[in-house]
Each structure stands twice: as structure tokens, then as C-alpha cells.
Amino acid sequence: MLEQKIQIASSAVTQSTPHLPRVRPRRTRRTENLRALVRETELNARDFVYPLFIVHGSNVREEITSMPGVYHISPDVLPREIEEISELGIPAVLLFGLPAYKDEFGSEDYDDHGIVQEAIRVCKRVDPETIVMTDVCMCQYTSHGHCGIVRNGAIDNDETLKYLGMTAVSHAAAGADIVAPSAMMDGQVGAIRAALDAQGFTDTAILAYAAKFASSFYGPFREAADSPPQFGDRRQYQMDTANARDALREVALDVEEGADMVMVKPALAYLDIIRRVRDAYDLPLAAYNVSGEYSMVKAAAHNGWLDEQKVTLEILTAVKRAGADVILTYHAKDAVRWLKQVER
User: Of 102, 124, 265, 310, which residue is the catalytic one?
Assistant: First the structure.
């Protein structure tokens, strides 16, 4: 009789709750330790590259209005930045320079005593282990604000290659570990590789801005680098924002020309491109979390519309989850501090 009652009760439970799941993914989400145990994507300090804007002068540390928390700094202030970055465990910096003068050929860009060349030497003197990357482009240095030599109102792609090669060689001679051409000139990686090798800099790596889109997210950078074009725009050489297959073609060309690493820029609006490049290539993949992405988080946080820490770490995690090995971001220092708090 007892066994019969148990069978009837068991049957009733089964019949009344047939929808109850046997598999419950929530079981591993119940506590923070459980969530951490099965977490697929982890951010850490070694993922980040911190961009720096170097200007002439002394004792300069001026906040960039459209990028709160990011500064123009002079070479004498740079050692404190490098020491802080090193202490945080961030392995690399990307240097942008603002020249003392501009001309149509961007002469300070490839001057051995230019602002970036001097900054490289300071970085390596302060901490030889910090990886120094340098932007190789002409827009900050030219009077017209374009990324190459202008002839008859248009960019002369092939003439520009010579100047990009000269700039890369001057950066390598100053001690740069990695040069990062961002001008989006056809053939720029091959020209730079040939120029570096011809001068004996065979160990200097190239991080190619392979898929760099003509994005509206670059707005704050124009102020930071003082580099808005004086006529037209950059859509004639930067990529159409609507194109994905074209991005894979650009990456393929840079890989063929000798790129050691490739980049997708911007990051947040182009997570699909990051994923497609990751699936197609085994090279180290970087993504640039650009100025506009940074500034809109800062602005929303300032107005109390979102939690800056949570949103920033969510964005950076998404970029890594999409496939990026390296993330260039102005959030780097804050992100590392927040990650250390989480670890504690």
C-alpha cells in the first residue's frame, strides 16, 4: 500500500510539472565565485595599450577638453606617465606627437629630433621594458591636415609612401619597438617594411591599421591631435563604414606586405569586423577603442546616466570577446585599477 501511494504521488508530480528543466544554466551564475569559475573572457592589464599625446614645451599637462582624463603632456612630464603605466602592469604605449610647426610635407614627422622621436627616447630611458608603439601618419604634421602628400587637391598615394618609410625609420632609430602606420595609403606596409629592412631595422615590428574606417567616432581625436583636414575629408582613403568584405581584403593585403600585427579601428561599432578578421587570420589582432567611444562614456557617466566602471569594462570585454588580442584604449589606466578592485 505504501509503495502504491509513493508511485501515485511521483506520477502526479511528473504529470503536473512536465515543463520543469533538467538543465539549468543558472546553477553556475548563482554566486560571483561560480560566475568567475566558468567565465570565458577575462580582461587583464596585459591586454591594453595606452595612447599618449606628446607636445613641445616643459611642465605641460593639460587636459583635453573633449577627452576628460586624457592629457597633452611634454617630454619632461612623460617619465611620470611611463612609471605609472609600468606600475599598473600595462605593457605598451602608443605615441602621438603634436609638432612645433606644420608644412605641406609634414617635415617634423620624420625629423630625428621631432617630438615623437624625443618621446621614444624618454620612454626607453625611463623603462626599457615598456613597449613603445608609434603612430606613422602625416595628418598632425601637415598644414592641410591630410594623411599624405597633396598634389592638385588630391592625396598622392605613391609619393606619400616614401615619407611614411622615412618616418618609420626615424622612429625605429630612436628606439621604437613597433611602428603603426595609420595613413591608409595603398602599399604602406610593404613600403615601410622595405625602408626598415634597408636601414637594418629588421626586428622592428609593424602593427598595420589594416581595417581603418572613415568613422565619425574620431571627433575628439581631432582636438587631441590638432589634425582636422583643412579641405574635404578622409573618405577617399579610409574605409567606407558600410563595408565588411572590403575590410578582409585590406587585412589580406597588409598581411601579404609583411604586417606582424593587424588592427581594426574603431572597435565598438565594428565588433563584427573584429570577429571576421579573427576567424580568417592567426596574426595578433588589435582593436582601437577610439576617442569618440571613450568620450561618450565619459559624458554619460558625468551626467549620471550610466555607471562608468561597469560600462567601460563591459565594452572592453566585448572587444576582447569579439577576438581582439590587444586593445588600444584611453580607459586603460582606469580599467586596470577597476580590475584590481574586483580581484580583491
Answer: 265
The cell 568620450 sits on which residue?
Answer: 295
List all residues 6 or more positions away from 191 whose beta carbon is below 8 Å from its beta carbon. 161, 162, 164, 165
Calculate the alpha carbon distances from 16 to 4, 8, 19, 132, 305 in Å: 18, 12, 9, 66, 45
Look at residue 25 and tell me if it is in a domain. Answer: no
Catalytic residue selected from 5, 102, 212, 310? 212
> Is 212 one of the annotated active-site residues of the chain?
yes
Q: Is the dihedral of CA 185, 190, 196, 201 positive or negative?
A: positive
Residue 275 above 80 pLDDT? yes
The answer to whether residue 311 sits within a structural domain is yes
Tens digits of residue pLDDT in 177-234: 999 999 999 999 999 999 999 999 999 999 999 999 999 999 888 788 767 676 556 6
**223 closest CA partner among 153, 129, 295:** 295
* Residue of 12, 2, 75, 92 whose CA lies nearest to 329: 92
Looking at the chain, the whole-number percentage of residues with pLDDT higher than 90 is 81
CATH number reported for the structural domain that contains residue 177 in this entry: 3.20.20.70
Number of domains into which the chain is organized: 1
